[in-house]
Amino acid sequence: MKSLNTVTSERAVRAMDVREAAIYRGPHLYSQTPMIRIQLDLGTLEQYPTDRLPGFAEKLTQLLPGLHQHGCCYGEAGGFLRRMAEGTWLGHVAEHVALELQNMVGADVARGKTRSVADEPGVYNVMFAYQEEEIGLLAGRFALELVDGLLPPELQGVSSLGKIATSSLGAFELAGALDALRALHRDRAFGPTTASLIKEAEVRGIPWRRMDSSSLVQLGYGKHLRRIRAGCSSLTSEIAAEIASDKDLTCKLLQEAGLPVPRSIIVEDAAAAVRAARRLGFPVVTKPIDGNHGRGVNVGLASDEEVTWGFLQAQAHSPSVLVEQQLTGADHRILIVAGKLVAAAKRVPAQVTGDGRSTIRELIEQVNQDPRRGEGHEAALTKIVIDECLLHFIARSGLSLSSVPARHERVMLLPTANLSTGGTAVDCTDEVHPGNALIACRAAQIVGLDIAGIDFIAPDIGRSVLETGGGIIEVNAGPGFRMHLHPSQGRARNVAKPILDLLYPEGTPSSVPIFAVTGTNGKTTTARMLAHILSTEGHTVGLTTSTGIYIDGQRIMSGDCTGPKSARVVLAEPMIDVAVLETARGGILREGLAFDRCDVGCVTNVASDHLGLKGIGTVEDLAAVKSIVVESVRRGGWSILNADNSHTAAMREEAGGQLCYFSTAPQDRWPDFLKEHVWEGGRAIVCDLASQPQDIVLYDGGHMMLVATADEIPATLGGLAAFNVENALAAAAMAYCGGIALSAVRNALSTFGTSFEQSPGRLNIIDRHGLKIIVDYAHNPGGLRALGQLVEKLKAEHGSCIGVIAIAGDRRDEDILEMGKLSGGIFDRLIFKEDEDPRGRPVGEVAAILKEGARRAGFPPENIEIVLSERRAVDKALAMALENDLVVITADDVGQVWQQASRQVRRRKMEAFVPPEMTAKNEARMS
């Protein structure tokens, strides 16, 4: 390693460089926990682990003393400090700093990991958990800036930080960074009410997702989907909420129902307010007619001047003001859920207690130092704010901020007891008189609210207000839970539980069954076969595929929809009762899965494809990505694995739920694990492709049952299409493990063919007028190899076999060469084309490599043409095809190619029977 002294003379020193950043929102390659990943190139700093940076660890822990509690790999406090003393790399340090910064501003995160990138010394994936994406990203940026700032000047410099998050800071300064994170936390973090509901949902295993930058949260999936926004739910009536916001209307409705409420009068100017107060009798209350959180509310107004002032305060929040009779007693909040009282708290207005030395201003500052107090609704209590209302209220008692209360003298600071204005709460749930509880429950039901906060004035909550006086002063929609979750005195109440009971009564599921399919080849057809089986059984299916999103058989989005964004669209569709999700490698690498757990997961196979992209360099790497689907199968669910594929079969060690295999191998060639599995009563669906008939057989619990024969499934072309036999086995296994009867599986598969309508781009065949055309998406060597096996079986029936072949430009050169070699071994004539998107390669390069691959396979060059445009390549192939020829097209734009081929076949028919001069006119009319 180099010494620090020699580094200063080398200006080739590379600073830390952020290569990329990603947000994992679901299970991913590194963990089941949502994380942020920063790929960091340490450059020269790879030579300087922490034990070679004198004073670094000490300076870091002085700034962040909370790092003393990080256990790291040792699992105990001080573990991370031990790692720094032993020597660890700065990417690992940044991981812990990012976690600690989040914890310092109120997030509760602990999990992280840093892993080196294979074959790239000094490059690391730095990963850490987050609660809110923006906060996590900014913490990651600040972590790198902080670590960099503690290095010797000659080693400092971190580049490409903009890939992580934007920052308004200039030179890094910890206090400013924490202020920025706290501000973002206040703006983005869930308040206590929403946070309690999410926590309860997580305890119950109910999936949730944030829908906006505020507090709108989706619970559950599909037809079991519900939404909450703080104390409002998707069951909350809009009309009821509007009634509750109109204080005068609420009062009238409750009064008509015989409930105790104060008399009130609506006014719109100060003079009318004074007249109303005289009519009602002093003291009175003034409040905005549609306000909330106690804003603009003043009580105890006992003169014309005070009423005028109170009117102006209320009018600042609403043009119409309610002047209300003041009831006598303490202020209580009663929480009603589904017509039942679940919590009650006595609310105490903001106050200070004198010590004989401090001014009221100083006493307020002391109270605000309570760590439970924060800004707004973020913490258990809210800081007391000195405003005009507070100044006016204490002035009514002859006090000011400079007044010094006597020792033990209690000074009330505000007229209202809302927690949002600095009040405190004392739990009194068990003290509420049954008569008072009944009054509160009736009030919520009369207004029509599923969740209601009843503001209740009572001299003694343990006695009926019908005897003591008092009553209801407000009914609130979307009430906050802070006072019940974190009372200043008394027992905390889990008020989220009855709300989740309301949304999901006992025995009610929160999710629709989720079937997830992945693999290198066959996943689209498997997903479509499974969706067809489930639809035939009467289910409303949400389906994602590489050709679009389908809801109940209708395509609602087109394109490649195999990523987590598309999966979330399906899972948020309220009409579906089952989800079938084709799940591709790209989305998993980009942000993880869209779901935490699935009921049935399937991996069709793993073969060489997409290697060299996103850090996936080997088939083993690719298998690790695909395995995430079955690793996410819930307890009691099913993992479906291809026993004939070694990479897939190996996933049995980590797969979740129970195992079911499928295989097309003869029984005497079964691998030992499959033989043992079936012998022990395990579940497997098999079909010996070498036998006649090709029976599809289910083994389950020691029993053997015939599912169907391969030739009964149209998609297998009488058993010739071996790859569709495999896909049928996978789909049948998923359906059966998902609770579908074997008879229903058999009947549904017997009606699944290769039509473009049922499975676009998957072995679609036109066989008319002396020409057979196969349109297939085969986009990698594995797919073409499987298609080639079918072509070999069909060749005997046909003359020349023409292939129109392409492969995506983001594949490795060796994969493109392999595609060319395979093509040379399958077809008699070849046309190499290119996809419309060259994916980073020069136009013509892919086709040239394909041609070279065919040449190496011994294919005659005179039988090869390069036509780069897919449309022109298809026209060329169909023009050269003679009667009884076979044309195979590996399509990029599947829909366009299918329409083009269909038109050409119709044209051939017309040319056979119609004079040439009429052909163009008729073709135009038919188009």
TrEMBL record:
Catalytic activity reported: [L-4-(L-arginin-2-N-yl)aspartate](n) + L-aspartate + ATP = [L-4-(L-arginin-2-N-yl)aspartate](n)-L-aspartate + ADP + phosphate + H(+); [L-4-(L-arginin-2-N-yl)aspartate](n)-L-aspartate + L-arginine + ATP = [L-4-(L-arginin-2-N-yl)aspartate](n+1) + ADP + phosphate + H(+)
Alphabetized PROSITE patterns for the sequence: ATP_GRASP, FOLYLPOLYGLU_SYNT_1
Pfam families: CPSase_L_D2, Cyanophycin_syn, Mur_ligase_C, Mur_ligase_M
Family: In the C-terminal section; belongs to the MurCDEF family.
Residues covered by the ATP-grasp domain: 251-504
Keyword Glycoprotein: no
Keywords, ordered alphabetically: ATP-binding, Ligase, Nucleotide-binding
Function: Catalyzes the ATP-dependent polymerization of arginine and aspartate to multi-L-arginyl-poly-L-aspartic acid (cyanophycin; a water-insoluble reserve polymer).
SUPFAM superfamilies named among the record's database cross-references: Glutathione synthetase ATP-binding domain-like, MurD-like peptide ligases, catalytic domain, MurD-like peptide ligases, peptide-binding domain
Record-given protein name: Cyanophycin synthetase
EC number: 6.3.2.29, 6.3.2.30
Gene name of the encoded protein: cphA
Chain ranges passing through the membrane: none
One MF term in the entry's GO annotations: cyanophycin synthetase activity (L-aspartate-adding)
UniProt source species: Rhizobium bangladeshense
Quaternary structure annotation from Swiss-Prot or TrEMBL: Homodimer.
